[in-house]
Specification:
- This protein is of the alpha/beta class and 275 residues long.
- The chain has a single domain, classed as Thiamin diphosphate (ThDP)-binding fold, Pyr/PP domains (Rossmann fold, 3-Layer(aba) Sandwich).
- Helices cover 44% and strands 11% of the residues.
- It has 10 helices and 5 strands, in the order ααβαααβαβααβαβα.
- α1 crosses α3 and α2 packs across α9.
Length: 275
């Protein structure tokens, strides 16, 4: 890796660190939210927004932009943190997280927030939506690509696999999936709830092209994103092995912080660790 590439990786890692700080600060300010899955997903999102996703911050509704579908919509702090880094949202917007009338609602909502392409709620719907966007782009003769982020617990939803099957049937080669494989869902570790097994092998069995990566290794993430740009292989799934709560010691691999905000003392610890 050349010096320029190393510098860019360092810039992305710094951006991810700033996003983590924003995630813990906004959930603390709201006294609610989902920090764990936001912290596990943020490196993937920074790599994507920082290298591959085509968008225009001055025109968030540019029709030919790539689409990003945050299917695990409760991880909205990650979405708002990267939009802040991209210049779409202000810090005051983040600190209004989950307050009445805020542009930063508890789940991502395209009607409230510039830069959000999908209104999330119940899990399992995002890939179907993304497939529709991908087929629409092809009908429009557009080069826009569609990215969908799924949680691994979310892949327990049957609708996900219907969309996986349909995407291959329709040869949706402009469709990309990132699975945040942090192995924890709402209540506990997946192995204690309903383990999904080898997610990559399941995608492959439906005809998708799959790469498995360390979801916290920025250089590895940038490389796999470059691979998706040069690939004409059809729908692609990236299985990102991550740690829930990454970057904050007491949140890491701790199911308690799936949907729990840090208190004052915990915020201070988190900010010290992230600094």
């Amino acid at each position: 890796m050349g010096e320029a590439a190393q510098d860019r990786i360092a810039e992305l890692e710094e951006m991810a660190r700033q996003c983590r700080i924003d995630i813990v600060k906004m959930t603390h300010a709201a006294g609610a939210g989902h920090p764990g899955g936001s912290l596990s997903a943020i490196d993937c999102m920074v790599a994507l927004y920082g290298t591959s996703l085509r968008f225009d911050t001055s025109n968030p509704n540019w029709d030919d932009r790539d689409r990003f579908v945050m299917s695990k919509g409760h991880a909205s702090p990650a979405m708002y943190a990267i939009l802040h880094q991209m210049g779409v949202l202000e810090e005051n917007d983040l600190m209004g997280f989950r307050t009445l009338g805020s542009v930063c609602q508890g789940h991502v909502d395209m009607n409230w927030t510039d830069g959000v392409d999908f209104s999330a709620g119940s899990l399992g719907m995002g890939l179907s939506f993304g497939l529709g966007c991908a087929l629409s782009a092809r009908m429009d003769s557009s080069e826009r690509r569609i990215w969908v982020m799924l949680g691994d617990g979310e892949t327990q939803e049957g609708q996900v696999w219907e969309a996986v099957m349909a995407a291959n049937y329709h040869n949706a080669n402009n469709l990309r999936v990132i699975v945040d494989r942090n192995r924890i869902q709402n209540d506990d570790f997946m192995e204690s709830q309903m383990e999904i097994g080898d997610i990559g092998a399941k995608f492959e069995s439906f005809g998708w092209n799959v790469r498995e990566v360390d979801g916290h290794n920025m250089a590895e993430l940038v490389e796999v994103l470059h691979w998706t740009e040069t690939s004409e292989l059809g729908p692609i799934a990236i299985i990102a092995n991550t740690t829930k709560g990454r970057g904050v010691s007491y949140m890491e691999d701790n199911p308690e912080f799936h949907g729990k905000a840090p208190d004052n003392e915990q915020l201070a610890i988190a900010l010290e660790e992230l600094s």
